[in-house]
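The aim of this short unit is practical: by the end, you should be able to scan a pair of folded records and say something sensible about each. We start with the first protein, listed as its amino acid sequence and then its structure tokens.
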Amino acid sequence: MYFVFVIVLSLFALILQTAFFSVIQIKGAKPDLILIILTYLSLLKGAEAGSIFGFSFGLLQDVLSGMFLGSNALTKTLLGFTLGSIGKKLYVSSLLQMIFVFVVTFVNETLLSGLTLMLKAYSTQEVITHWIRVTPTESIYNSFLCPFIVLLLRFGERNFGLPQQ
């Protein structure tokens, strides 16, 4: 049942970030709610679950955002695997969660910028300008939304049960 809760929450988050947060961007940045959910689930459930979730919802983000098909899927799969690999060794308290999500968002945006440069979709100057303008703001945005997403996920754990590995 928790699995269904996470899927529904993630789909809602995806719709929210594509429809609602696209309208209320701050300095061109909008939060990546899927990245926050990915961070939490990867740390909790491990590399395999993180990779699967990262790929699936990263690909959905690509389809809905009109970005290069596979760019979010690739970066979120890599992050899901990496976070899942270190997850059991890392306890993340509430303040550390916010800092951790800030760092993960920073890494995600850097990877996406690097992919954009490699694909030569935009000039180097455009990519660097976008990275400087958007990355810090999006990282802060995600950090502030992190506690609310974590509360929702913990609500799901309490009410729908956390499946054992």
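Turning to the second protein, read its sequence before its tokens, just as you did above.
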Amino acid sequence: MPVKDGIEATKEIFDIDQKVKVIFASADMSVKEKALSMGIVGFLSKPFSLEKLVKKIESLISKARV
């Protein structure tokens, strides 16, 4: 199976279903703007803690309820 980067994988996910909510994680901050422009709902800089991931998810759930 060919190796894909996160941007390519995210594009393929959105090609299948635009409703999918994607939190993108990368150590390469240069991809942040590209990922955000694709429609991701959140970005985490690697390495990140489980606590940061949970807080990001909770924040997104709170925004969705409004």
